[in-house]
Amino acid sequence: MFKIVRREEMSEGTVILNEIEAPRIAKKALPGQFVILKSGEDGERIPLTMADTDPEKGTITIIYMVVGKSTAIFKDLNVGDSFLDVIGPLGKPTHLEKVGKVVCVGGGTGVAVLHPITRGLKDVGNDVTCIIGARNKGLLMLEEQMKNASHDLRVCTDDGSYGHHGFVTDVLKEVLEEGDIKLVVGIGPVPMMKAVSNLTKEYGVETMVSLNPIMVDGTGMCGGCRVTVGGETKFACVDGPEFDGHLVDFDELTLRLQAYLEDEKKCHSDYCTIRDAK
Amino acid sequence: MAEKGAKKTKNPRVAMPEQDPKVRARNFLEVPTGYTVKMAQEEAARCLQCRKPACVQGCPVGVDIPGFIDLISQGDMTGAIRNLWTKNALPAVCGRVCPQEIQCEGKCIVGKKGEPVAIGNLERFAADYERENGTGELPPIVEKTGKKVAVVGSGPSGLTVAGDLIQMGHDVTIMEAFHKAGGVLVYGIPEFRLPKDIVAQEVNFLERLGVKVECNQVVGRTVSIDELFEEGYDAVYVGVGAGLPRFMNLPGENLVGILSANEYLTRANLMKAYKFPEVDTPIPLGKNVVVLGAGNVAMDSARTAMRLGADSVKIVYRRSKEEMPARKAEIHHAEEEGIELFLLTNPTKYLGNEKGRLTGMECLRMELGEPDDSGRRSPVAIKGSEFEMDCDLCIVAVGSGANPLLTSETPDMKLNKWGNVVADPKTGKTTKPGVWAGGDIVTGAATVILAMGAGRDASNSINDYLTYGW
To answer: Of B201, B270, B193, B207, which Cα lies nearest the Cα of B448?
Structure first.
């Protein structure tokens, strides 16, 4: 059992933070790695990239958007409740190296995944600019943490309610124009990562993205998470989750992410109906 | 399992009752329903009690077959299960999934002139009887040696090693990557062939003997083998199985609706997705299902798809029925349940729609040519024989390779060119001191009982190492 020691609601309650006791994982986890969580006996195995770890306290932090039945069940867990299973750390850690000027771009809950990577890139001596965005001010997350993790934080909202009015790619373009960028890390919804990768390709700047396809075991056993990268099939769980954004087939990934869309909608609404009736 | 076409005899083997094919093709209950006491004793009486039993030589773990059968015929069911346990920690599993026809029963003298004694059925009976009516009394407890062994993987070989070593007095901890113990017995083999409650009870039996089972431990990620030694383990057994699915590498393979058998069966078995939405993990339901491959895993996948309500399920295989690697009994069961065999057929391309979903498959007809290196006649494509078949779900069951997750993190453990761990065939010793390996990670995908045989050899060697230092 993996006890929840801290719980926060973010982005107007659509996003949840859980800090969970998992000493063995906390000790081993590195930026970019993920865990698989399962709430109860009949639960689904849900992969989530860790937003933070505290090896001394023996905890890991996950931040997730409530999108289906499983995350709705997660949301209903309170401090003191436990996840039945937490497995990890899984996936390859981020390759952290001093390269010079780096831009970290995050959208939605991708900002949570980006957080330890940004901090890691800063810690090894890079000059880190960070761009984070959300649909509106209320949905923006981790602004303070990202400010601390980078040298220069730029914020944008789609509706202009806070920071730059527009998309993260608009701001990224400005930064790329300034020149001398060695690496861009883009993490967020697939359309955002695709847009970031298309833009940086024009500038010939190396770009890394972190993918979160559907998977079951997370250890390379099922192949459900296969993605096409540079024309080759890769398993995101063991070959990734980070890949060269210029080589990822984002269109295929988008379609594969919709494999169970109908099932998910149905069982999420059933769950909410039953829960609300109680 | 008496099959049609088996040799006629004056002393026929007692058939195990089975669910009717039409009924069972749509449920997940076990297919053969088990012997009654009377049936078991009648079958046990067919054993000749050979003085030099050939059947025992055919058993990879050396079960005292005439011994336990004699006890059943005398009505001493407790004696029978105790006799089995001395050589086999998983009799309820082996009685169900071992290929007895090429092992013990293949060597049975009674079988020379008629049908062999139903050793597998009797083994299953003894284990089921103990579970349902037994005393629950454990084998005598042995004195502790104070040595600690970590067993990585809780499949058949790991469970065998754990069962052996705990009964030799060592402390044993099993590390399982999944959230439930049993390895392929829980994620791979379907409920209708091996009920999961039975696996859970076999694991529970080991726990009652003192084995510790730690789930959610991905050795190679959560903890490394070297860290296990640092934590105080004296020896490590690696039995992580063949957990890397092979695909066909055909155009369109990443369309939605194409799954590895590993994924399909894991969803159905481990995650119990056949009960969706009662459980949270979904599984794709196909109307026209194609299974690529013709081994036991392919049969399991096809029969699962049929139970999930498919209109048609086709096994597509490039060779002929002769060459199908699945057990005859499994092929027979599949055909009885309405699964079609598309033999001498090779897929060349997956076809999809604008939503990226599978809609069909292009195939070629094959004919058998000259024998290849394996002695099997190799299939040759018939020119211009391309045709399309509709299919909205394809399960790829063409084998699995060595999963590199653990081995790539353990560079001082030597691998062969296929990524399998190099281990001494007699002892299971690897090139890394204090580390043994066995089962599919060494041999490539094989059977439950061969993995158990490898586990048995390794546990004897580990015991020597812990006791005498060699």
So the answer is: B193
Distance between CA B438 and CA B430 in Å, rounded?
A: 9
Are the beta carbons of B460 and B470 closer than 8 angstroms?
no
In chain A, the residue whose alpha carbon lies closest to the alpha carbon of B406 is: A219
Q: Please say if the pLDDT value at position B386 is more than 90.
A: yes
For residue A171, how many other CB atoms are within 10 A of its CB?
21
Cα–Cα distance for residue pair A90/A7, rounded to 1 Å: 23
Can you give the pTM of this predicted structure?
0.92
Contacts of B267 in chain A (CB under 8 A): 216
Question: Is the confidence metric ipTM above 0.90 for this complex?
Answer: yes
Nearest CA to B125 among B75, B174, B162? B75
B282 vs A264: CB contact, 8 Å cut-off?
Answer: yes
B7 pLDDT tier (thresholds 50, 70, 90): very low
Contact B178, B270 (CB under 8 A): yes
Instruction: Report how many helices (DSSP H) and strands (DSSP E) chain A contains, helices first.
Output: 9, 17
Closest chain B residue to the Cα of A267, Cα to Cα = B277
- Per DSSP bridges, beta strands A59-65 and A52-54 are antiparallel
Average pLDDT over residues A38-59: 94
- List the structure tokens of B149: 């062994």
Q: Which helix (H) or strand (E) holds A269?
A: helix A261-277
Residue B15 phi, psi dihedral angles, 5° rounding:
-70, 145
Q: Residue B141: which of B113, B170, B115, B119 has the closest Cα?
A: B170
| Nearest-5° Cα angle at B79, B73 to B81 | 95
Instruction: List, for residues B232-256, the tens digit of each pLDDT value.
Output: 999 999 999 988 999 999 999 999 9
Residue B214, Cβ density class (10 Å: 0-12 exposed, 13-18 middle, ≥19 buried): middle
pLDDT over 60 (residue B4) = no
- Which residue in the block uniquely carries the two structure tokens 């081995």? B407
Closest Cα to residue B94, out of B17, B157, B37? B157
CB-based contact A112:A142 (threshold 8 Å): yes
Reported confidence tier of residue B36, pLDDT bands at 50, 70, 90? very high
Pick from A82, A219, A268 the residue to mutate for testing the B interface (most B CBs within 10 Å): A219
3-state secondary structure of B56: helix
**First vs last Cα of chain A: how many Å apart?**
26
By three-state DSSP, how is residue B61 classified?
coil
- Distance (Å, whole) CA A64 – CA A8: 11
Q: Which residue in A67, A46, A29, A71 sits closest to A218, CA to CA? A: A46
Helices B119-133 + B77-85 axis angle, to 10:
110
Strand ranges inside chain A, DSSP E = 2-10, 15-21, 34-38, 46-49, 52-54, 59-65, 82-83, 85-90, 101-107, 127-134, 152-157, 164-165, 181-187, 206-210, 226-229, 232-235, 242-244
Asked if the C-beta of A45 comes within 8 angstroms of chain B's C-beta atoms, the answer is: yes
Contact B245 A221 (CB under 8 A): yes
At B258-301, the pLDDT tens digits run 999 999 999 999 999 999 988 999 999 999 999 999 999 999 99
For residue A68, what is the enclosing H or E element? none
Per-residue pLDDT reduced to its tens digit, B128-182: 999 998 777 787 778 999 999 999 999 999 999 999 999 999 999 999 999 999 9
Taking residues A84-94, what's their average pLDDT? 95
d(CA B368, CA B379): 4
